[in-house]
Amino acid sequence: MSRGRGSLSNLPGRFLRTETLFEDGECGVGGQQSGQVDARARPTHYHGEQCKSLIVSNRSPDLPFQRSINPYRGCEHGCIYCYARPTHSYLELSPGLDFETEIFCKDNAAAVLRAQLEQPGYRCEVLALGTATDPYQPIERRRKLTRQLLALCLELRQPVMLITKSNLVLRDLDLLAPMAAEGLVTVAVSVTTLDNRIKSRLEPRATAGSKRLEAIGGLSAAGVPVSLLYAPVIPFINDHELEAIVAAAADAGAGSGHYVMLRLPHEVNPLWQQWLAAHYPDRAGKVMAVLRDLGDGREYQSDFFRRQRGQGPWAALIAQRFGLALKRHGLTDERVPLRTDLFVGANRQWSLF
Q1: What residues does the Radical SAM core domain cover (predicted)?
Q2: Which of 9, 107, 210, 280 lies at a 20 to 30 A Cα distance from 343?
């Protein structure tokens, strides 16, 4: 059983052109081993890279943003359910252990974002920060790429929707508080479980649930609009905590709440099922049966407006429970609108005259 890592294997990505198989006890780097591996033999490697662009656009009608930025690729938190794992396949790396141990840092992210924001044709829209991998994963303490991006957004009055599950976000209150005062930032703190035993299996290197509640409290006290993101909801694993998590987040200072059901796109599905069989063999069949029910017979439903909530009796029950929990604790499911009229990027030089 792997210790300190989420994935139990290095499942080859779907775009891998060559595959090297290792003998038992060996552990390769680069997505080439498909069997179980000893995670203790896989130290984390950080790769500096120079990106050409940072802003990514999407046309997904069920997402609350159309543009996003991510300073890192891969995530050391090791959340087994992470829907971003398949992105490592584009690097010919494994969505399994490679995703957790081969971390790519966009060291020129702030400079590239400045160039994009200061283009004459740029039209200001809210940027979502942390939509693929957590912007406050461990390496951020040293690299400070997220902090550089926030400093730039404050300077240019660029609105940001920040998503994280780390209390490291409190480090940047000196930037977030003045942004919030001008209506330029909201933060969603992801809380999956308050049970450290579950967390250590689901999210082995992520911040404990109690620390995430502290992050909600610290942000709220500083005047930063903060919401609970209860994600993912996993039948028979953490769904029993729904009401307790909403109550704790409300007590900590969250103003709103949202949830997302477990998603299993591409390579996440086999990695998840391997993890589930290893950690919860007594309920693996029930979990997958409910996920198929949510997906109309499929283990993953990719259709817009269904992929995040599912459908059927289980989906309706979770929606009802979550809605009642929000109402009971005075929370809303509405999102705080951010201002785009203060942006000074492309027009900053003209403002001198």
Answers
A1: 61-298
A2: 107
